[in-house]
Amino acid sequence: MKVLLVFAHPEPRSLNGALRDVAVRELEAQGHEVRVSDLYAEGWKSEADRADFPALAPKARLKVAGSTGSMPTASPMASASTATRIGATASARAPSPASAPC
C-alpha cells in the first residue's frame, strides 16, 4: 500500500519527529511504500495573515484565530458576501499544528 505521511512540526527532532520516524520504519517493515511530506521543510507557514484572504475587502478587518481557536472573520464593515467567502476559505484550511493535539 502507498502511504503519505504529512509531517507538520517546526522541530524535526521533536517527539512528533521521532513518532514520524517510527511510523515510517514500521510501515516500510510491513512492506508499504512510504512518502513523507514535511510541510515546514517545504516552507509552509502555520500562521494565517491577510495575504491568505485575497477576497477580503481592503477596509475589512481581518481577525485570525487567537487563544480561543476561533477562525478568521471579517468585521461588520465587510460585506456579507466577503464574510461568506472568508468563512468558506477558513473552513477549507486545515487546523494549525499549534491547535492540534501533539
Alpha carbon gap, first and last residue: 26 Å
Tell me the radius of gyration. Answer: 18 Å
Shape: elongated
| Class derived from helix and strand content | alpha+beta
Largest sheet: 2 strands, parallel
- The averaged pLDDT comes out at 77
Question: How would you characterize the overall build of this protein?
Answer:
This protein is of the alpha+beta class and 102 residues long. The chain has helices at residues 15-29, 80-92; strands at residues 2-7, 33-38, 62-63, 73-74. The strands form two sheets. Strands 1-2 form a two-stranded parallel ribbon. It has a two-stranded antiparallel ribbon with strand order 3-4. The longest helix has 15 residues, at 15-29. The two termini are 26 Å apart. Residues 74-97 have low confidence and may be disordered.
